[in-house]
Design goal:
The protein is mainly beta and 115 residues long. The chain has 2 helices and 6 strands; from the N terminus they run E-E-E-E-H-E-E-H. It has one domain: SH3 type barrels (Roll), CATH 2.30.30. A hairpin with a 6-residue loop joins strand 1 and strand 2.
Amino acid sequence: MKTRRGDVVLVLFPNSDLRTAKRRPALILQRDNLDSGLEQTIVAMISSNLARRGHASRVFIAVSSPEGKAAGLRLDSVVMTDNLATIMASEIDSVLGHLADITKVNAAVKHTLGL
């Protein structure tokens, strides 16, 4: 499945214990056409737990907003750039939508990684 940076996808996202996982939406962060030779991509977890919002590493997306509608999310959500995973491309079930303007996500990634 062809994906691009800013796509909201449904994936089996690993829990931090690396033994369990949960099917959830995630945001493709990896640059387009990275061509690393590996069939994998870097994603950020998306959570509907709104108690997680309000941190500089996290971006709130209201489902009623234009970006929320374009993302294909069913619930108000938080993109968590402090919870990243590298997943096999084959684990991407579907593309739910796309965030065209990821300026806030870029700022959150910079904060998370200290760039």
